[in-house]
Design brief:
Length: 103
């Protein structure tokens, strides 16, 4: 897990939300892993930690295409998918949105 994922997981635990699955493979037959998953609620969480990186990754054309495919497959399989930036995790916005979605 990344530092951001651990930070969000800690926030989730502090406010008493259900424990999410980590690195969850939500799409049968595919190797895509989602950072966190609240399985009974069908909520997937992705933290976009590399948005300020200049290395080829999620910001490359291929990376963006893979991210789109991953997100679209989640929705097509009935999941609600939330994307959060590092600042959204750090300022508590991410955990507040997750809490609202679960209630």
């Amino acid at each position: 897990m990344t530092k951001l994922e651990l930070e969000l997981l800690s926030q989730i635990r502090m406010i008493g939300l259900p424990e999410p699955a980590v690195e969850y493979m939500a799409i049968p037959g595919r190797k895509f892993r989602y950072d966190l998953a609240f399985i009974p609620q069908k909520i997937l969480i992705e933290i976009q930690g590399g948005i300020y990186s200049y290395k080829p990754s999620h910001a490359s054309a291929g990376g963006i295409r893979r991210d789109c495919e991953k997100a679209n497959l989640a929705v097509a399989h009935g999941w609600r998918l939330f994307h959060f930036t590092p600042d959204m995790v750090r300022n508590g916005e991410a955990v507040r949105m997750i809490e609202e979605a679960i209630k």
